[in-house]
Specification:
Layout (H helix, E strand, L loop, with lengths): L2 H16 L7 E6 L3 E6 L17 H6 L1 E2 L2 H35 L1 H13 L14 E4 L13 E4 L1 H14 L1
Parallel strand pairs: 1-3
Antiparallel strand pairs: 1-2, 4-5
Helix pairs in contact: 1-3
The structure holds zinc ion (ZN) (2 copies).
Length: 168
């Protein structure tokens, strides 16, 4: 499992833990006009299957309110918002990590090595002096093998990056 898959799993675990409902408060509800079920007031799930009519007293049946689907809709909306917030938090954390990595020793050394390998010439236009190093993939980041790295000039790099973004 890759690091990002691992993180994605952790995020879902956090979401599931926060949105684990123990159905503490339930009420008898009438669903679809003829089914009596207990519905959780917190998550909106039906906590029982349809109850036999004669298992309920007339007082219980009279007290039953209509099954409320908005509870579950709201619960899922809140769950989705929480997931989104965690994903945003992670991507902020990742961009901080990325900035640190770019400044790091190892990358600076590898960058020099790749530029030297390419004779300081842009591998895209084969003309300009290379000033930066392009990643063919970030799959192995931060330990990208040299063969996935190409020296490029600023103009080519911008063009390639724009094209890559357009594709994604
Ligand atoms: Zn519940
Ligand atoms: Zn170029």
């Amino acid at each position: 499992m890759s690091e990002s898959e691992q993180e994605e799993k952790t995020i879902w675990q956090m979401v599931n833990e926060k949105f684990e409902c123990d159905h503490e408060v339930v009420h008898l509800r009438l669903r679809g006009g003829n089914q009596y079920v207990y519905q959780c007031d917190t998550c909106g799930k039906a906590t029982t299957s349809a109850l036999a009519y004669d298992k309920l007293s007339s007082i219980e049946r009279m007290a039953a309110t209509p099954f409320d689907r908005t509870i579950q809709d709201n619960w899922y909306a809140a769950r989705k918002d929480y997931h989104k917030a965690l994903v945003e938090m992670r991507s902020r954390k990742m961009s901080i990590n990325y900035a640190d990595w770019r400044r790091g020793h190892e990358w600076q050394r590898q960058r020099q090595r790749v530029m030297q390998r390419d004779g300081m010439i842009c591998q895209a236009c084969n003309e300009n002096l290379a000033t930066e190093v392009h990643h063919l993939t970030y799959k192995y980041h931060p330990h990208t093998p040299d063969y996935f790295l190409q020296s490029v000039c600023r103009a080519c790099h911008e063009r390639i990056t724009a094209r890559d973004k357009g594709e994604s």
